[in-house]
Every structure is written in C-alpha cells, then in structure tokens.
Amino acid sequence: MSRKNGIYLGIAVLLGFIVIWTELKKVSFDEIYAEIVTIKWGWLIVAFLCMLIHWGIEGRITQLFLKRSNPDYSFKNAYRIPLIEHLFNAITPFSTGGQPAQIVALGKSGVDYGVAASVSLMKFIVYQVWIVFNFIICIVLGFKWVSNSLESLSYLILIGFAIHFIVVFCLLMVMFWHSLTKNIVNGVFNFLNHLKLGKRLQKFRQPLLNKMTTFYEQSNYMRNQGTLIFKTSFLTIMQLIMYYIVPYFVLLALNTENVNVFKVIVFHAFIIMIISLFPIPGGTGGAEYSFTLLFGTFIFVPGKLVLAIFLWRIVTYYMGIVLGLIALFIKPDISTNQTKRIETIV
C-alpha cells in the first residue's frame, strides 16, 4: 500500500471513530452495557458469515470470468480480490480506488493486466445492472415506508437511484449504440472546446473514447456468453442478498422484536443508495445518519439503536478493511502456466 493510501486509511478510521464516538455519547454506558449482556451471539456470527459468503460469491464470479484465460485460477486467489477491492473502496472518496486495486491484485496473481481490466469491467457491468433492478424493486415495494415520515431522506434515496440508473443507461448506450454514443461524446467535447474550461478537458477526450471502445468490445463478448451471464447474474443476486440481509441478523442478535426481514433488506438497500452520494470514504457520517433515521422507526431503545449501528458497521465495513489488509500480505498462488508479473499495488 502506498503512503497516500495509508493516509486515506488513517483518515477513514479516524472519521469512523469520531462518528461512532459521537453516537456513543448520546447514551449512557449503563444503557450500552445492558444491551451488550443480552446479545445473542449466534445471530451475530450469522451476520459475519453473510459478509464472508458475500465476498466468497464475488470471488466465484471472478473465477467464472477468468475461466477462459486462467482456468486453474484458485479460489484462494479469487477470494483475495473482493477483500482488496473492499479495502480500497472503503478508504477512497466515492469508492474510486476499488476497481484499480483489484486489477493490480489480479495482475500480481498471474492474470494478464489486459484480461484483469476486462474482468473488472465485466463484473462492473453485471453488478450495476442488477443493483439497479434491485433498487427498482425496493422503491416500488418499499418507498412508501419513507416517503411520508422521512421526506428529506426520500429525496436522497431518489437521487442515489437516479445516479445508478444514469450509469446503467450510459453503459447500455455504449453497448448497443456505440457509434451514436461516440458521436455524442465528440460533439460534447467539440462544444466545450469553444469554452475556456473546455480546452482543459480535451486531454480526457481520447482516453474516454478508448475506454468506451474497450467496453464495447467486452460487451460484444458478453452478449455471446449466455450461460456465463446467467451464472454470474444469479451469483450477483445472491451476493446482494447476503449483503442486504446483514442488519436483519444484527437486529435479531439485539433481541429486536417483530423484525420484518423484507423491510430490513429494503432499508439497507436505501442506505447503500444514500452512501453513494457522500464523497467521504465509506460514506462515514451519511451511513450512520441514514441508519439512525430508517431503523429508528422501529428500534425505540436508544442504547439498542446505537449498538446496532456500531455492530452493523463492524460487520459490513471495518471487518472488510481488516481482512483486506490481511489479503494484501497473503502471497497469491501462481500456477506454472501463469506469468508472474511483480508490481507494487496502488
């Protein structure tokens, strides 16, 4: 890990500590202790297992996409990739560091860097498509739970959904109308060229067009791989379910009564939408605030709510950072028919 990313990690942990400490100060130690001694640890272990399965499923998706170029790529190597991706997503603004980090991690484990970039891109396409479908279902069936009582939060949810929808729409434009999209991008840059700011942006024109061409070529390959897309789509859905259901088991561990599992999944999906709007690493602050508002609608004991936030962030955020750091120092397996390329990660 570079010095810059080490600084990002320190900032992310510090911000998280400040937010958690702020939440803890809202209740007394006796209230927190009263909740801790009644924790059902079995349910909490299930929550941890859900996240471990979540990363394991993504590792399996990575293996499937590498089957053509690296058929003997081990599950040990594949499991490292989402952990490293989580680490760099967690410590960089808008989660921008995860994808470059996973490409380098794949390269260090013997995958050609061009193939690594293609695999990362294909995973991104499938994930974005299904996360938007998931959001649509959650909004259609569960938006009524927040639109009346939490109006300000509902706007953030809609904005988050709009951003993800626009991303998928742009991906589909490149996939199915590449020439038209290329002309539109060139037209925008030509228009901006007449502006003072536009001249500074011209250096991004060719790299963007090159990435669009690469994406188009990969999407053509994917359209001819129906079985592969079906398998990875199914696994992606399972991966999302494992992630979204984590708060349900956290609440069961805290003896929360009458927990509606579907409502918990919908609320967690809404929180993920909101987090995507915050430039702070890990959405720190926004995550805790949205969790308090949403789950505070049926967790009425302050100590229980604060502890739920703390445990939820440990399971879904901080555990991944710790495991990601460990994954960085685990030496990947390099098979005899793979070429080992040594580079420093990010």
From TrEMBL:
Q: What is its main location?
A: membrane
Q: EC top class, in one word?
A: transferase
| Identification of the protein by name | Phosphatidylglycerol lysyltransferase
- The protein's gene is named mprF
Signal peptide segment: none
Catalytic activity, as annotated? L-lysyl-tRNA(Lys) + a 1,2-diacyl-sn-glycero-3-phospho-(1'-sn-glycerol) = a 1,2-diacyl-sn-glycero-3-phospho-1'-(3'-O-L-lysyl)-sn-glycerol + tRNA(Lys)
Instruction: Provide this UniProt record's keywords sorted from A to Z.
Output: Antibiotic resistance, Cell membrane, Lipid metabolism, Membrane, Transferase, Transmembrane, Transmembrane helix
Q: What does this protein do?
A: Catalyzes the transfer of a lysyl group from L-lysyl-tRNA(Lys) to membrane-bound phosphatidylglycerol (PG), which produces lysylphosphatidylglycerol (LPG), a major component of the bacterial membrane with a positive net charge. LPG synthesis contributes to bacterial virulence as it is involved in the resistance mechanism against cationic antimicrobial peptides (CAMP) produces by the host's immune system (defensins, cathelicidins) and by the competing microorganisms.
Q: What is its EC number?
A: 2.3.2.3
